[in-house]
Amino acid sequence: MRGRQAFAGAAIIFAALVTGSLAAAQTAQPQWSVMHQEFVRPSMLMKYEDTSKEFIAAVRQHHDASPVFNFTGIAGDDLVYTYVTPISSMSDVEAITSGFGKLAQAVGEAKWGDLMVRNGQTIDSMRDSILMEDPSLSYTPAQPRLKPEEEQYLHVDLYYVQPGREAEADAVAKDFVELYRKKNLPDRYRLFKVVMGWDTPLIIVTTPAKSAADYEARNAQTKQAIGAEGMALFQRAFALTRRFEMHGGWIRPDLSLEPFAKK
């Protein structure tokens, strides 16, 4: 796929630029991911998914050529497809990058090239980012309401933070975690910082749910539970935010690639 090749090229740049951030955040034990997004042409949605599944099947068949490569696929309500690949270090990025060449050889250069062209015709544009999750800024209840297999939908909030106010945003995020813990709320959320990518500084908060309707119902209950204290925190957050967006999408196992299992 044209998109996965773009990921490979961008990863080399990210590897050089993010090294300093990795070293600085070692004590916080952050979790890192590469996020690749593809903006699909509406008229070619079915062809996009078909060729994406071809790509996944080919990689799965030859997964030993790039064993570090895996991702979770999310189909956005806005026809943006997001692929998140966890990485433990920059060596993973380098391994994935070099693995694309090995995959092309394993699949066959002609067959691989044809797949890249057919999939590329369905995509309008792409973008890549490096995400960092600081576990201290995410919330996981002691007894989550949903089991992992029930988390089929993701609600996503984008906080475009005003430059220079990142430390204040961290303080608000920590206060949110403390409030959720005090209220013993049953729904978890994850907070990611885009450390390299578009329109930074940017904070992404994801909340899993069974569906969009399930999220809306639970969100109403959450707002009631956090009350005025929670609303004051949101006001603080928005005071630091130059732009805010909300998105949603379905987690797609059929557009995901599971971690490599050694035979």
Short descriptors:
263 residues, Alpha-Beta Plaits, 6 helices, 44% helix, 29% strand, elongated
Q: Can you tell me about this structure?
A:
- With 263 residues, this protein is of the alpha+beta class.
- The protein has 2 domains: 2-130, Alpha-Beta Plaits; 134-249, Alpha-Beta Plaits (2-Layer Sandwich).
- The protein has helices at residues 2-24, 45-61, 90-107, 109-120, 166-183, 212-239; strands spanning 31-40, 71-76, 80-87, 123-133, 153-161, 190-196, 202-209, 241-257.
- A hairpin with a 3-residue loop joins strand 2 and strand 3.
- Helix 1 runs antiparallel to helix 3 (90-107), helix 3 (90-107) crosses helix 4 (109-120) and helix 5 (166-183) crosses helix 6 (212-239).
- It starts with a helix and ends in a 6-residue tail after the last strand.
- The relative contact order is 0.18.
Topology:
Blueprint: H1 2-24, E1 31-40, H2 45-61, E2 71-76, E3 80-87, H3 90-107, H4 109-120, E4 123-133, E5 153-161, H5 166-183, E6 190-196, E7 202-209, H6 212-239, E8 241-257
Strand content: 25-35%
Number of domains: 2
CATH architecture assignment name of the largest domain: 2-Layer Sandwich
Classify the helix fraction into a percent range: 40-55%
Q: Write down the overall mean pLDDT.
A: 90
> Per CATH, what is the topology of the largest domain?
Alpha-Beta Plaits
Give me the number of helical elements.
6
Concise structural overview:
The chain is an alpha+beta fold and 263 residues long. The protein has six helices and eight strands; from the N terminus they run αβαββααββαββαβ. α1 packs antiparallel against α3.
